[in-house]
């Protein structure tokens, strides 16, 4: 049980540090976008809002919100610059 909490805390810290500005793809729908906001609820649910980079009729497509577990990271601008080095290697 304690190991699960530690792993969960590590995953949570990675999401918290690299979410905003990173590009994600939803595993279920295939929707791709840049994370513009992070939502954390009292029950522990964490969701990210993704803004699509495409336009429809000359206007930006509105953001969509997804559970963090169903998203896969495509581009993390912070990792490229080495900002997330914790001394033990890259996160």
| Number of separate helices | 2
Q: What kind of sheet is the major sheet?
A: 5 strands, antiparallel
Could you name the CATH topology?
Answer: SH3 type barrels
Q: Low-confidence parts lasting 5 or more residues at pLDDT below 50?
A: 86-91
- Distance from first to last alpha carbon: 23 Å
Spatial order of the strands forming the largest sheet:
6-3-2-1-7
Gross CATH architecture: Roll
Q: What's the helix-strand series?
A: HEEEEEEEH
Q: What percent of residues are in strands?
A: 35-45%
Average predicted confidence as pLDDT: 77
Helix content: 10-25%
- The first-level CATH class name: Mainly Beta
The value of Rg in angstroms is 15 Å
Shape call: globular
Total strand segments: 7
Specify the structural class: alpha+beta
Number of structurally distinct domains: 1
How would you portray this structure in words?
This protein has a single domain (2-80), classed as SH3 type barrels (Roll). A hairpin with a 5-residue loop joins strand 1 and strand 2 (32-40). The chain has helices at residues 2-18, 77-80; strands at residues 23-26, 32-40, 46-51, 55-56, 59-60, 64-67, 71-75. The longest helix is centred in the first third of the chain and has 17 residues, at 2-18. Strands 6-3-2-1-7 form a five-stranded antiparallel β-sheet, with no helix packed on it. It has a two-stranded antiparallel ribbon with strand order 4-5. The two termini are 23 Å apart. The protein is an alpha+beta fold. The protein is globular.
């Amino acid at each position: 049980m304690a190991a699960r909490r530690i792993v969960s805390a590590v995953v949570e810290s990675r999401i918290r540090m690299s979410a905003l500005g990173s590009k994600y793809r939803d595993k279920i729908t295939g929707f791709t976008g840049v994370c513009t906001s992070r939502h954390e609820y009292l029950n522990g649910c964490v969701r990210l809002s993704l803004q699509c980079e495409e336009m429809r009729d000359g206007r930006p497509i509105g953001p969509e919100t997804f559970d963090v577990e169903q998203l896969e990271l495509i581009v993390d601008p912070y990792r490229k610059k080495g900002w997330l080095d914790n001394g033990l290697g890259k996160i």
